[in-house]
Amino acid sequence: MTFKFLDDRFATSGQVTKDDLPKIQQAGIAGIICVRPDNEEAGQPSAAEIGVEAEALGLAFVSIPVKSGVTPSPESVHAMRRALDTIQGKILAYCRSGARASMLYELARKSESVKSETRRFDVVIAGGGAAGIATAASLLKRRPGTTVAIIDPATEHYYQPGWTLVGAGVFTPEQTRRSEVTLIPQAANWIRETVTGFDPEHNQVRLGDGSSVEYTTLVVALGIKLDWAGIEGLVDTLGKNGVTSNYRYDLAPYTWKLVQGLNSGTAIFTQPPMPIKCAGAPQKAAYLSCDAWRRRGVKDAISVEFDTCTPGLFGVAAFVPALMAYIRRYNIAFNPKTRLVKVDGASRIATFEKTTDSGTETIERKFDMLHVVPPQAPPDVVRDSKLADAAGWVSVDPTTLRHTAYANVFALGDCAGTSNAKTAAAVRKQAPVVAYNVAATLDHRAVGAEYDGYGACPLTVERGKIVLAEFAYNGALTPTLPKWLLDGQKPTWLAWFLKEKIMPLLYWDFMLRGREIMVKPKVKA
């Protein structure tokens, strides 16, 4: 292929194919911008196809589709301006011939830099993870023209529910990662800074560069803190000495490597005190590992333990019988009320504290493989703010997700002080609720959208079968599909199909795009 440099940094070309990407990378290009809409002609590769392959090579990728013969919209110009400001290095933009890419570039060059835009917004969203982006997308579809700023320094975005399957050799790590710039809604402003404080009395958020932004309404979506240092010796041995975790992008592949390499010995899987994100993930790792060993015919030579701080296997009783059947099937030693406190990687010794009727005892166990889930806590910036409840989470009404003291503040996702399961499925339900209620607040209407506490945990009990636990506040069962089609209290292949094929699609192409399929908020009359 050939491309034309318009200046020392920006080039344009015709349609890019997957075969062109290595050449583009070798030419020193750091990021690619697709300006061509999908399906303009037969056989045209989609933006998603090119984007996935580009990001696998380490290239940033942004899609800003502009129809042929149409002047780019202000949102498209804004998105191009943002891409120019955020992609570090040389950029190649493509369409059918390169003409639309050139026009969009010229319009963006003449526009004001995103970095110098106004520092006051209708809505400021602290956090650019799943909760923040989904809320922004839903809000902008519901209330076009709203000025929205998303504050987050991350350049990469991860589909974290997929890491369980990375650790089982089902997904590749690259399937769970995309560039952040490709996901921020075109009409939103992206402030690539860290949130360092909140001043709700003055409607301000403080940033890591020392500046502040002002808001009319604030949404807090800063996730949860993974406290790897909360277990003595863990940080020094992660990713080696048989110590791994599916709770990190770079470590999930090591889980699968360990599973493939272990033919005998002891494998230990741990779960810290609640609350944690995706409370079923610690035991999912155990089940999928055992299933892989069973398929290879080595399971009987491997002793497996599941140590959890919780008193039971799962918090909703209806799903426990199916899970206990797999504990017995895989001959897993189930140790409740047991907390991992120390790891000596070099000696391969894990130290636990077990709570008994007579007190606490310390137990040391040798291991060949140790899958660790770190203790988890509210983000420091939330815990230390006026927005926090007594436990350090953002204090919100569990139904409207509005702050209990500040009427123009909302929170959702892992940092919210609600009792629902901290899962992506919960965020998918929460984001439309917050978007509706934020729009109502801006329009001086009553907040009427209600969240029922829905969360879902697809418990991968073996490769090809899942117990799909769906429940709301107080453990109420809330199945999405009728029982005759999918019985969530039993392991089914259909739930596995949903987990492997449908849920990633719902995440990337629906939730993060503000498409509220099957999650339209219930609005109180």
UniProtKB/TrEMBL annotation:
It holds the Pfam family BLH_phosphatase. Residues 3-108 form the Beta-lactamase hydrolase-like protein phosphatase-like domain. Keywords: FAD, Flavoprotein, Oxidoreductase, Quinone, Transferase, Transit peptide. Residues 121-241 form the FAD/NAD(P)-binding domain. One of its GO terms (molecular function) is FAD binding. Its cofactor is FAD. Gene3D superfamilies: FAD/NAD(P)-binding domain, Protein tyrosine phosphatase superfamily. The keyword Oxidoreductase applies. The keyword Cytoplasm does not apply. GO terms for biological process: sulfide oxidation, using sulfide:quinone oxidoreductase. NCBIfam families: TIGR01244 family sulfur transferase (TIGR01244). This is TIGR01244 family sulfur transferase. It comes from Brytella acorum.
